[in-house]
Amino acid sequence: MKPLIAGLALAGMAFATMASAQSDKPTIVLVHGAFADASSWNGVVPILEKDGYPVVAVANPLRSVKADGDYVRSFLNTIKTPIVLVGHSYGGMVISQAADGEANVKALVYVAGFAPEAGESAGALDTKFPGALLGPDTLAQPVPLLAGGNDLYVRQDKFHEAFAPDLPEDAARLAAATQRPITDIAFGEPATTSAWKTIPSWFIYGDGDTAIPPKAQAFMAERAHAKGVVVVKGASHVVMISHPDAVAKIIEDAATAAP
Hints:
The structure is a single chain. This protein has helices at 2-21, 45-50, 65-76, 91-98, 122-126, 156-163, 169-177, 184-188, 214-223, 239-242, 244-257, and strands at residues 27-31, 55-58, 83-88, 105-111, 143-144, 150-152, 182-183, 201-206, 228-232. The chain is α/β, with parallel strands linked by helices. It has one domain (2-257): Alpha/Beta hydrolase fold, catalytic domain (Rossmann fold, 3-Layer(aba) Sandwich). Helix 3 (65-76) packs across helix 4. The longest helix is centred in the N-terminal third of the chain and has 20 residues, at 2-21. The radius of gyration is 17 Å and the shape is globular. One of its GO terms (molecular function) is hydrolase activity. InterPro entries: AB_hydrolase_1 (IPR000073), AB_hydrolase_fold (IPR029058), Sec-Metab_Biosynth_Hydrolase (IPR052897).
């Protein structure tokens, strides 16, 4: 089974590289956040592909900032064309780590995402300003891991309110049931690099975000001297699901404007 899995992974990377080579547009690499998976980009991917962009949504391991960043960096190294790297939520921590020193990453797009300074953790940034409903009261009983640390899940009965209040109830319930856990290590681990200091960045978030306070996101965008900032009225933390057109547009803006 392992050779089959390895073969499929290599085939997927080869396809992404081939698609990139056949396009004069940069490859869009999408990195999901905590309590989600790559399917959270399902509304955005068809728009980008229709407009001619090669797109890959990476499976973020959600284990630790360094390990996740190293994994995504390894994936980036299989793509030989310019890249626009996009991160949602905790995925912003990961792209800030993964893109550091990667010459073919031309733009960073933070989708309701953390853009940390070196030494800052997701947990610290999330509590820097009031308003986050995603916290101890909304997390389920931690799941201890044999290697140390715990896996964290959002309580299913709190998921809609704390994570995705602008989604239909049925969609939020499905997302809650299929969520992927993140370790408490990942939430508490400080970033060691800040790729947004050397790579142009764009930000999009909703003013109804109950997971990462909008004030925190405005603070990070201003600190990064973002090239573009879009605040989607009424949008929640899952703005890429509820407003895929707006998210696709800012990604394409970044792709067009990036050097």
